[in-house]
Records
---
Amino acid sequence: MAVTQALLAQLAQMTLILVLSPLLTGLVRKVKARLQRRRGPPLLQPYRDLRRLLGKEAVVADNASWLFRVAPYFIFAATWVAAALIPTFAANLMFSWLGDLIAITALLGSARFALALAGMDIGTSFGGIGSSREMMIASLAEPAMLMIVFSVALIAGSTQLSTIADYMLSGQVGLRVSLALALVALVIVAVAENGRVPVDNPATHLELTMVHEAMVLEYSAATWR
Amino acid sequence: MIPVDGAALALAAALAAACFVRAFGIVFLGRPRSEVAAQAREADPWSVTAMLGFALLCLLAGIVPGAVIDGIAPVAQAMTGARLPPQLADAWLSIVPVAAGRGSYNGLLVFGFITASILLTVLVVHRLASRGLRRGPAWDCGFPDPAPISQYSAGSFAQPLRRVFGRVAFGATEAVDMPPPGDNRPAVIVRSIADPVWDMVYAPIGRGVGWVADRANVLQFLTIRRYLVFVFAALVVLLLALTLWQ
């Protein structure tokens, strides 16, 4: 019974992340638009985009290899598993002991590796631009990410996210300068990893600032074949 | 010390990932960059199987890391005098370097988890997505260049990394060599990279040896009288040293 309950909690969390993440994208776009005194798209626009993309016919370049087809599934799965290892609404989830923060960083790193390879698959100059820039950003952001992980782990005595969450909730942490600095660093790393404005711009089609957009330029729609 | 080690390891891993993307991407992906490459064929099944065997071993080492850790433990013991606790005894093939509360990793279950997620995604996309698929030329933002040379090369892939790390670590410089008007040469980017270990360690030693050799070279061109004086003086000095020493 306990196992079933734990499994259900885990599945509920994974589904919740999946269902809510387009909403976050919509929220970010909305906030960005409002800050620029625009009205912006509605919050639910990413869901409509997803539905539209699912219904579209996929155009795949002539020389695309199997890697081009497989990479999106792997990237999605690795990111999803990384999200599943993070306790969002319940700590001590069933699979939380599978991997710690280092494993999560590694999963995101593998996803990026596959993305960079997929960007180079078609053999256009844009794909190469995106991949080489992405690997450069990764080589700067990943060490910083692990430094943050270790500075938190040194305080909590564990890299296991559930243990860290328990420790932080226990109230024996107090005021720590290193945690504040880690938070600032995490925000900077998050901006870089999520491809946001000073590093990358998800809404651009200008070569100077394209990183992620350049890598996924040849993808037109979801296809299962 | 641990955070610095971890960050150095992460930097090494990220640079290695960039290196592998570059090596695999430039060699195997993209359009063929030469006539010969365009006619490349897959090797015979035996060669492919041999490579697949190595790939499988890599995958196995990642899925069952406990066996690898236990396997190299005697070497670690011999070299450092310490070793990780035995890992294969843990339940579900987990690896637990220190204690369960400090961090654990289970390669087998993470692999299974990722595989299950991929299968689930494929299933859902299969159910929901359209089946339309069309092959066409690459889009490339509307300006596909038919010349394969417009693709990224190994040098251009490395350029951002070289600009970030190379300038400090290797003294890498770039300059555009622009020919003057009327000159038909193409403009080229001239790169130069220095090896700091060579410049700081080996080159000074080499210069020192050269300096000593230059000074000693004078000894080869003396008169016979001076050689005899040297022999005599050396004998006197040695005998004197022997007397004093006793």
Note: The mean pLDDT of chain B is 88.
---
Amino acid sequence: MLAYALRRLLSALATLLGVLTLVFLLLSATPGDPAVLAARSSGGRPASPEALAAFRRLHGLDRPLPVQYVTWAARALRLDLGRSFQDGREVRERLAAALPATLYLNGCALLLAMLAAVPCGISAARRPGGRFDRVSGAVFDLLFATPSFVLGLLLLLVFSVKLRVTPLFSDPALGPLGVVLPVATLGLGAVALMSRFVRASVRTALDDPAALAARARGESGGAAVRRALRRSAGAFSALAAVLVPSLVTGSVLVERLFSWPGAGRLLADGVFARDVPVVLGLTLVAGCAVVVASLAGDLVSAWLDPRLRDVGLLGERP
Amino acid sequence: MTARRTLGALLLVVALAACGQKGKHAESVIHRRLEGEPKTLNALLATTDPENVVLALLERNLLEYDEKLDLVPGLAETVEVSSDHRTYTVRLRPDLRWEDGRPVTSADVVCTIRTLVDPKTPALSRKSYWDGLERVDAVDERTARAVFREPYAGRIQAFNLPLLPAAAYQGTDVNTNPRNRAPLANGPYRLGRWEAGRTLELVRNTQYSGERPGPEMILFRVVPENSAAFQALLSGELHEMRVTYEQKTRLEADASVAARPLIFDELGYTYLAWKNDHPLFASPKVRRALTMLIDREAIARTLYGGLARPASGPIPPGLWPYDPSVAPWPHDPKQAAALLDEAGFRPGPDGVRRRGSDRFAFTLLLGAGSDLQRQITEVVQQSFRAAGIDMAIRPMEWAAFASKVDAGDFEAAILAISLDPNPDLAVYWHSSQRAPNGWNTSGYRNPKADALMDRLRTTFGRDEARGLYAELLRILHEDEPVTFLHNVRSRWGLSKRLEEVRTSPIGLFLFWPGGSAWRLGTGTAPL
């Protein structure tokens, strides 16, 4: 199990390094000089070459790309993520300000989605083709196909503008009503995905010959579902691993719509302004979340299924 | 029964008190929209609209633009210019204070200007005015003197300059100074609270010696999404925002909503940039023909809802050198065809014009994000197609688009420009400023125009300058280096309760008194 965990950790770190390098190269290769973009945002009289040079010098943009990257990576190892091109603040400080809001928003949405999706998925799986399965399937397909931005705007128009039961500007300080719309917007999309996933996993487990044999031995329906849930735990942990990164950057459009000051908005602003330190910082955080989540998912799967852990450090099987 | 009546009366009193408090609170707070969060509140480093509109209430400038764009005293009582136009002597008002009670002195002026010209300071929107500064010194407590190496006619506009407090900035790194997010104000308001990403509360600055502003507080709310902001405007939760054409129409059509539209002229124009050294666009005749193929009146009527007019050149009507005798080129496809024939571009077998091996086919770059610009380019594309010109449209992500345009790496592009009150055209049209070295992105070059722009840099009398501008504008009109499309009117939605709202060609806020004069009334007074 330890060798398995080590192997997964090493591969995850290599993936993280690869992703960071790729993001840096993509941002650098994309046309758009951060200095000129900052100057263009000012309107009025254009910036002088001296001002642009000062901007580039300040942020190290006058140095060769490999030097920029190595400098950033060396600092990142000391947990110094550099300074934002947009406002000169430390990226660490900007992340610390934005991440809690996003984690709160996406965490609530994920929780809501799980609470709704698991019972819905199980009910649909127990009677495939039944009325609940058909109706919930149609509703979830519709929700899944609706862009989150459109769904959010609809909710905003109905509950904030027409009925006036929720505030137009979301704010956790206003209590549950202050967050319900962005949480619902994100959560409803996730419910659709998770519910269909739960239904498929439970159905597969219920159709398994072992489950059939158990039923033949007189196992009750509830026990069969519990057994099916246990058998699907590996798949659920894999799904959770996939969803965790969205906790960090999965709400760009919803944050914009609801004026939510989170990491999604930070990421979008960073990409448009070619703010390399901010984008790399967020990539690092999201990457670490992926690494930890997928590692946890794999370890849970390996714990549930001992066949998965019988591999050596280099992946060899006994 | 008595107990029930008493309870009822109590509830009524509480409800009335609550209403009264709410009313009082609402009276004294103006709710304004920011499209994005300010990155900094350091007045030298600020570049974006959200930063500038907040700073306009916190910091006064040495000289201010009034609503007609004349420079009037601000923090400075006077700015005297020497006869050789190289020395500027700033005399501060006697009663100025920072919000912490310290006086505003010449040390602040010197510190600000020295910080601004420091090579380490990326003051993107202000540095160019201070090129060629020889020295700046304090003469006495209230007087500072700046000496420049060469005279420049537009220099006085450099003194539309906010100050940094020397006590906070002297000897520090301006880029990381903590005051950049907690500025010391010398204007009518000071920063009360800044909730990152959500709101900025500005409260009255008790140290301010000028006229006391009406509202107790200006509450700026960061609302990036336009549709959400508009709903807030309709319901009265926001008191101002820039609106789209559709939103302006909605405000006009529905008298029951809490807001009304405000339309006024702003400095700027939209244009189609042609790469002047491209074989297709090298001839002024061709460029004029392209302009004459476009029905700009129809575009103004249909796509802008009448809130634009064809532009005649690079000086919009709000700037003093504007010459109304220069009329925009008319929409005249026949004349355009004749000009293209004269330039040697004749219809080819595939219907597209050719001159030798040059087929009149090119790509126009379009920055993503503006539906209106996309619609305009589609109308232009149809007009060109009918005249035998094959124009492809290539939408691009905005940053990539800007990068290509600034590098001069394009054949044609659609752009919009908003100008500051300095009419100096050399920045955009002098051959020394051709991309990628400057902002003459079309690569226009005409020695006569260069000579006139050079003379204008050192022509200080407005009458003499007006004559030179007239000559320059006629040359630019004949050469038509780009197709000047439209001077577009600015559209705002304002709460019906806002009073004392004045406009200027540089918008609602960046002149004096701008937003600091706004009051909240009952909603019945006209704007």
Note: Chain A touches chain B through 55 residues (CB under 8 Å).
---
Amino acid sequence: MAAGDEMSGERNHDSNNALGAREAIARASTIHRLVVRDVEKSLGARKILAGTSMQVGAGESVAIRGRSGSGKTTLLRIIAGLETPDAGTVAIDGHAVSGPGRADAPSRRGIGMVFQGSALWPHMTVAANLRFAMPGLDRAAVAARTSTLLAHLELDGLGDRYPDTLSGGEVHRVALARALAPGPQLLLMDEPLTHLDAELREEMLQLFERIIQRRDGELVAPDASVIVVTHDPVVAERLASRVLVLMNGRLEQDVPGQSTSVEEARG
Amino acid sequence: MIAPSGALRFRLSVKHAISGVAVLGWLALVLGPVAALAVETVQRLLVGHRDWLALAVPTGNRGPLLGRSVALAGGSALVALLLGVLAATALASARRPLVRRWRWAVLAFAPIPPYIQALAWDTAAAGAGRTLSRVPALESFSNLPSRVIEGGSGSAWVLVMAYLPLAVGLALLAIESVPADVVEAGRVVRGEIVVFGRIVLPLAAPMLFAAGGLLFILGLLDYSVPTLYQFPVYALAVFAEFDAYHQPARALLYAAPLIAIAMMAVLVTQTGLRRAAASPAWRLGEATRRASLPSWPIAFRAAQAVGLLALALHVVVLLGGLVAGAGSVRLVLAAVGSAWDEVVFTLGVAVVAALLCLPLAAAVSAALAGGRTSVRAIAWPLVILPLAVPAPLIGVGLITLWNRSWPLGEVYGSEAMPVLAAVARFAPLAALIVLAHRRRLDPLLFDAVQLVDRPVAAIWQVRLPLLAPGLIAAGAVTFALTLGELGATLLVAPPGRGTLTMRIYNYLHYGSTDAVAGLCLAMAAGTLVAGALAVGALSGWRRGMR
């Protein structure tokens, strides 16, 4: 599925350029990329998510904020398929992927994910990390996309290096490159800028902003959606067009006037 | 540069003195027997026995004997590890809370001596034969089970089954040491089998390799099972060589090819052992979080079922075979009563050996964990190489070291000798267990306690409680292994005193009886309790880290 999306992203490349990124996003937003409905999750006796619902449009960038332990990461992991909800459903592109009696494997959801601790595969080089994330593509396409990702994420010359030889900023850039490698329709980011000093964090934020907002089809498809989980309001505002706050296991809308997705989903 | 205060100087000198005593203890008790043997051999070679050097080359029928021993150990280790990995993947991804909670309990079966398992399999094979003989259509196959459990095939089968719990436990440790987020990052882009093959296995490989090496060494140095099935192996030939000539130097030279292979296995797997002990998965934080549960494809689930079935078979045959062979509780009590002196002596030896191993293990693990790089480079081989020495050679080394005039001669022939044999054999393992536990603790906890100006309180109230789970596990494992120690004890037991193992092993050569099954059951029960204590301590600290 991920490979197919990657191909279709490349096929649409020319027309997307013509439309212009903003116009494409506006058109694509009319489709729901993700629908989360009444999701519940408990860890032991503690209820983490209590009927959480949200919708994300195609091409939309949404941030989920909340205090530590509020369930932000759990919600993201449920969307990714790394956790199973106790109740409720998750649908991606109109297909139920989690719900009663159904749990599609994460690799079948067409997602890319940036993990909190980067989670690069330590026994693979940078290039191998990217290649492993592109199943189903032929060798030439993999090589071309690897070069593109390395160039755009300022990782030229680092393809043969192992993760433990990289600086903190380089590790974060490789993690983003790997998440973008399969050309996902839904990009999930879990606290993508933690453990960085202020200067590097700002540098990385600018890079993430540029990559996510550009959506010219080369790295990110125009209709790809992004969900960022963060406790940092600055990161949320700069990477997302809509901010949701997770409180008491439910999502509340933080920025008014952008969308009514939460209410729609509950209805 | 600031000079240390008087109190600090005193504390440092006390610390160095304690470490010095422990290191000396290690050199004398663990390395001493082998060192004495080496010195004796060099002396003999220098005073006109140069022709003995030829013993170090496995010529004549010793070549095939060595090859057969390596094949038996290698094959058994490989099959046990393969089954162990399959069972471990199933246990690591079990959804039932009961299975998940008790998955480490399998390790409690690991210290049960292989020759006890041989008895259980013999009983099971005899039972299967009787059952087949009652069915007319299958009557002609009634000898088949006994024929399978004999000779080389019987030895291999029993060794695989005997090492399976250890293989499962080590594979479980290796697989669960792979950081959860690294596995999940793979799952986002690839299917379960690809993630297992390309991410989990490569990252677990050094530890799995070390596990395979350990199983290989155990199989290579064990002669108890092959002897029971009349399958000659090189480890027994070493024992026979000493028995025939009573020349320690000849025994060492005769054992040289076996030691060389075992040492190579230790050195090759050393990286894995060190990585296992230093794995970030032992430490605090995110690495202790387990990855979400995978959904394995049906074909892989079928393979896992084979591993689980083998494990279940092991437990059922071991307990069932011994219980059936023992007959009744009354007969077990009668058997234990008839060997009461041996039981008491064995328990005493095991308790003292375990207690003696603990300070050595604590001090040596501290050197391995926090010493300078150059110290660690020297310490590591000295800690793990004793694992490559065959048990009979440890016994011969102890005789060489202690069979002297006063004062050493006072120890020789005393009840301390079996204790020294157990310490020499199992202290390295105890040190590795304590080291693994140390690696799970935040080093800052030990740094913080140095700021407290109450050295005695710091030891009793902070250091010991922090190390307690590791020490308990190490003590319990040493106790359990000492209960079943045979190879070295057989040579150094004092006149008129024998351990329970010696009695059982002598009985075993005359076939399975109620008495021997009863003693084996009692021994297995004691080992299981000690093993469970070690696993309980392990599980306790694992939970405590979450």
Note: Confidence is low (pLDDT under 50) at residues 280-288 of chain B.
